[in-house]
Write a structure and sequence with these properties.
Elements: E1 9-10, E2 18-21, E3 48-50, E4 59-62, E5 65-70, E6 79-80, E7 85-86, E8 112-117, E9 123-124, E10 128-133, H1 139-153, E11 162-166, H2 182-192, E12 202-205, H3 213-216, E13 232-235, H4 244-263, E14 268-271, E15 276-281, H5 292-305, E16 309-312, H6 322-328, H7 332-351, H8 362-366, H9 372-379, E17 390-392, E18 402-406, H10 412-422, E19 426-431, E20 444-448, H11 451-456, E21 463-464, H12 466-469, H13 475-490, H14 496-500
Parallel strand pairs: 10-11, 10-12, 12-13, 15-16, 15-19, 16-18, 17-18, 19-20, 20-21
Antiparallel strand pairs: 1-2, 2-3, 3-6, 4-5, 5-7, 8-9, 8-14
Bound molecules: calcium ion.
């Protein structure tokens, strides 16, 4: 006999008419909820139970937001799931609230980390050699060269953390003059400037591709140290190359120059204001918005208070909260930019005959998220409680401090790639279903939403926010723990993904046609 479990549910807001089941394995029919109804059927973990009779057509509230209307009569104690909920239409951009931003958060002082100061003023959390590519054709050659650099060169440069090939699917076979081509082009350009690469730009080109090195990195876009001669480019079709090994030797010779400069760098004490943190979620469940994302939101506020830059993203996961965003905008210009980006994305989805509802996955639904409205309300809390200070378009570099909406697709790989291009030097990623996500370019701190996931994936998850749901820790305690872990990781402490070497590919966002 198992010991009887104490039923636990969480209602986010006093006006909500559903609560989420916390217990591992869910709760069986007949369970009497403390101070609430008795379950009329089994309700899985993470799923919603009706706290009152909800006749068909009743507005279902979670986060004090209408996440849908009941499609059938659901009695008190019944299971509210995606099949029993009709999703509301997307919030219109007309009559959005004018900015009424919350007061600026009080400054937070006395915290620092050990980072690599770059010539342009940015700060790296890792000391990596990156090799940029103009086109996918060179990817195999670069992979071969990177293995050689790791084996033959890196042992001689112990202060260098690694070498990364910035390979991608762009560069040729694309409508490079189409208006939206600016997005993948500036993404590849700005990726090369990520603070973790120390301002050392090395480019591998094929020769005949559409994205020529001069177009990728025009004068003025490259680091000051390279401005006179331009970036180092190895071009495989150069006549001087006779045989494959000649190409590899050229790459290794250039790599040595950059490795020598990188190896001479030391970590120095840097203020928290030099962090550029991207927050993201993936493999979300109903706990994302209860445990991990609120803890991230608390840490976001701490970072912003300390003067850092924090980017939140994922267009389809903020679309249903657009009214919250415009209200939190620091200025009317920021509010207008939010609407501009989300409106552009609506049109992009419509061109593909889709809308924001295409976002949710089978795993999201299994985890209790009925639709994108519910997912969005849980996703947006990663942005904390402060005013929104700025907005950047996909692939742009962030150039200001504070809380920034970096408009990107929600796709984990594309969002991460675009946040890297924006200048991210630290990534925080929450997951409920579980994902081994990692990036070679920047450390990724992964936060589990549930104890069960943290227990099973004990050597993949860096922080367990499930303790919030089980009552073992508060959001504030978890937020501070995450903040301190961020400073440790920024200073060189390895994440689980780094220990195992788990790296997802860079994935560009190319809304323009291919040919
Ligand atoms: Ca995501």
């Amino acid at each position: 006999m198992n010991a009887p479990v104490t039923p636990r549910t969480i209602r986010i807001h006093p006006d909500d008419n559903v609560a989420v089941v916390v217990n591992d394995g869910g709760l069986p029919a007949g369970t009497a909820l403390p101070g609430g109804p008795t379950l009329v059927q089994a309700v899985p973990q993470g799923h919603k139970v009706a706290l009152a009779d909800l006749p068909a057509g009743t507005a279902v509230r979670r986060y004090n937001v209408v996440i849908g209307h009941t499609a059938v009569d659901i009695p008190a104690g019944g299971w509210v799931n995606e099949q029993r909920l009709v999703m509301p239409g997307a919030r219109s951009f007309d009559d959005l609230p004018a900015p009424q931003p919350p007061a600026e958060l009080p400054p937070l002082e006395g915290h620092s980390f050990q980072g690599y100061r770059n010539a342009d003023g940015s700060v790296g959390t890792r000391n990596l050699l990156a090799v940029t590519t103009t086109v996918q054709c060179v990817a195999g050659v670069l992979e071969f060269a990177v293995e050689r650099i790791k084996k033959d060169l890196l042992p001689k440069y112990p202060n260098v953390d690694g070498v990364v090939g910035l390979t991608h699917s762009y560069g040729c076979g694309v409508a490079i003059d189409a208006p939206d081509a600016i997005i993948p082009i500036r993404t590849v350009r700005n990726l090369a400037m990520n603070p973790n690469f120390g301002g050392e730009v090395m480019v591998l080109s094929l020769g005949c591709e559409k994205l020529q090195p001069e177009r990728l990195l025009p004068p003025g876009s490259i680091p000051i140290s390279d401005e006179r001669q331009g970036p180092d480019v190895v071009c495989l079709q150069d006549e001087k190359h006779v045989g494959f090994m000649s190409m590899i030797d050229s790459i290794l010779t250039q790599a040595k120059t950059h490795l020598e400069r990188l190896n001479a760098r030391q970590r120095t004490t840097c203020p928290v204001s030099e962090l550029v943190v991207g927050v993201q979620c993936g493999g979300s469940d109903a706990f994302s918005g209860i445990t991990a994302n609120p803890a991230v939101g608390f840490a976001t506020d701490l970072l912003v208070r300390a003067g850092a830059t924090v980017m939140f993203s994922e267009n389809t996961e903020v679309r249903d909260a657009v009214d919250q965003l415009t209200r939190r905008a620091a200025t009317q210009e920021v509010a207008d930019a939010i609407v501009r980006e989300l409106g552009w994305y609506d049109a992009y989805l419509a061109r593909g005959q889709a809308d924001r509802s295409a976002n949710t996955t089978p795993g999201n639904k299994k985890g209790g998220l009925s639709n994108i409205v519910e997912k969005a309300m849980g996703s947006i809390v990663k942005s904390g409680n402060g005013p929104i200070h700025g907005v950047i378009a996909p692939g742009e570099k962030v150039r200001q401090k504070g809380l920034i909406f970096a408009a990107t697709p929600a796709s984990d790989f594309i969002c991460g790639t675009l946040q890297l291009a924006a200048g991210m030097n630290l990534h925080v990623f929450t997951t409920g279903r579980g994902t081994p996500y990692g990036l070679a370019e920047c450390p990724v701190i992964k936060v589990a939403t549930r104890n069960d996931l943290a227990r099973r994936w004990h050597d993949l998850m860096d922080i367990n926010a499930g303790r919030i749901a089980s009552g073992e820790a508060t959001i504030e305690e978890l937020g501070w723990e995450l903040f301190h872990r961020m400073l440790a990781v920024a200073s060189g402490e390895k994440t689980w993904a780094e220990k195992w070497g788990l790296h997802n590919d860079l994935v560009l966002f190319n809304p323009a046609p291919v040919t």
